[in-house]
Description:
The structure holds two protein chains of two kinds. By secondary structure, chain A is an alpha/beta fold. Chain A is 46% helix and 16% strand. Chain A folds into three domains: 1-30; 36-150 and 312-361, Rossmann fold (3-Layer(aba) Sandwich), CATH 3.40.50.2300; 152-282 and 376-391, Response regulator (Rossmann fold). Chain A contains 13 helices and 15 strands. The radius of gyration of chain A is 25 Å and the shape is elongated. By secondary structure, chain B is an all-alpha fold. Chain B has 13 helices and no strands. The longest helix of chain B is centred in the C-terminal third of the chain and has 31 residues, at 268-298. Chains A and B meet through helix 3, helix 4 and helix 7 of A and helix 1 and helix 8 of B.
Amino acid sequence: xxxxxxxxxxxxxxxxxxxxxxxxxxxxxxxxxxxxxxxxxxxxxxxxxxxxxxxxxxxxxxxxxxxxxxxxxxxxxxxxxxxxxxxxxxxxxxxxxxxxxxxxxxxxxxxxxxxxxxxxxxxxxxxxxxxxxxxxxxxxxxxxxxxxxxxxxxxxxxxxxxxxxxxxxxxxxxxxxxxxxxxxxxxxxxxxxxxxxxxxxxxxxxxxxxxxxxxxxxxxxxxxxxxxxxxxxxxxxxxxxxxxxxxxxxxxxxxxxxxxxxxxxxxxxxxxxxxxxxxxxxxxxxxxxxxxxxxxxxxxxxxxxxxxxxxxxxxxxxxxxxxxxxxxxxxxxxxxxxxxxxxxxxxxxxxxxxxxxxxxxxxxxxxxxxxxxxxxxxxxxxxxxxxxxxxxxx
Amino acid sequence: xxxxxxxxxxxxxxxxxxxxxxxxxxxxxxxxxxxxxxxxxxxxxxxxxxxxxxxxxxxxxxxxxxxxxxxxxxxxxxxxxxxxxxxxxxxxxxxxxxxxxxxxxxxxxxxxxxxxxxxxxxxxxxxxxxxxxxxxxxxxxxxxxxxxxxxxxxxxxxxxxxxxxxxxxxxxxxxxxxxxxxxxxxxxxxxxxxxxxxxxxxxxxxxxxxxxxxxxxxxxxxxxxxxxxxxxxxxxxxxxxxxxxxxxxxxxxxxxxxxxxxxxxxxxxxxxxxxxxxxxxxxxxxxxxxxxxxxxxxx
Lengths: 394, 299
């Protein structure tokens, strides 16, 4: 009896150990988490909240689609929203709450929150995706971040060159600059360098400031008797500048080049009737007929019927969510807190160098954290952008 | 210690220092808004010193109050005799002047700023030491002839003149001390956030410091020390639905407190009462301890 009992105990223990051994492999292959919780940092309040609403919508929409099709590796994706406002200190506080426990952080978006929050990500060797904060800002934090916006020198020079080529009579250019963001000032410097190379004289920059009278600014610019104008300002100011130029006899709008961040629904609302002929240089082509984009755009128009053109954060932050999904699935991440560092590193490396990622607008490669995408030149016709030239990345 | 808690404590100390920097000149009746200006100077000093010049962090922290004081000293030469409103406007302009200069200096990172600033090696000790030293300085100033002269100046400049103190010197000294505190706050900010850039220093910082001082108590240093951690911490713990309205909440509290309790929540009377209570509690505790000791030795 005792012998039988002893055998029974030994066999049970052996069986239990074997089961544990076998199932440990199974546990390693599937997620241990019930859901993928990802912190998402965005300016939900403050002066940029309007842009933030659109970006949040796009991010949430990607999450809805992913969860409707089974989630990530069979588990739903859940975002935890954190408001950074436009305050670097607030961004740092929010990042510090989530940096140690997250596989990836969506955002922080916007230059000040990125600069405030990303140093903590770098110190903790974590991973964040401030994909639409601007290449010049984000690359300061490589390799712990990725940027979908291509650097200024890659998208600006070809477009400016093409604009001058299309307007050979332009020999001098007046530049309107509102240095509200460091990337705007960088754009202005790069424009001047390009004009120098083309033999076009860049006249002294006309700087705008908050609340300035734009009529006087335009008069100051016109006094320099330029052949062309470039506008590096917010959409509202860009629209008003073009109206003021029109009032002072600048009827040929092809002599005006608008920079990407001004290309916003507000520009077309306020500038209606004055924009036709003007050129827009951009690193995004939202006039593409790509099916995925057309489907997203249709949903966007339903969500924001008052806008005809989405903010640039919409396609970027939508793609950001899908890239995270691909990274988790391709690297076999499980969400196991014990493997957090290892899995986070793999996800980061995947996102930094993925090739042929199927973005909503186009397929693109990532090279060392920076997207490789074409640049574009548009011309406004009937208050809508029409693509005129595409410049492939080198 | 967890990172969020450390971050919270660091910013609490930064805002306490900035609150005291606003409080000291206000003792003379001057609304001196150049704290962000001196904070910017201190922050960039610490950032440049530790990144480009590879100074030890301790050197940057020790040097930052002197840098902040120096930057405050220069305009104080003109603002020491200025009336309250003029001081407010002129000191506010200093922020924009310095930030514009920094934007145009490439070696300070221009519009981009300076990154990869190292964190504090011993953050808790450093924060505690800075707070203790700054608090002692403010306390000693408050309870010195300088503090009493400043208080008289704020109540009645004409009477103050009759008592003989050099009022311009009093005002200037308070502004310089304010600069020293702000410069230190700037250095701590730089080491906490890890980056400094022109956009980080602006009017929005003043909007955080104002409620701390005027709700906390603008006639005593303790109001700032108590309210800064509370007001800084509120948005971090509020539910998402209410966080959007935090500026409305701050504004409403500020208006109500200024109307109902113009001195702030922590008034001088409250501080005196608390001190009296503490002393009497201490005396009673001491008496109880002695009595117990005598009983024990009698046995």
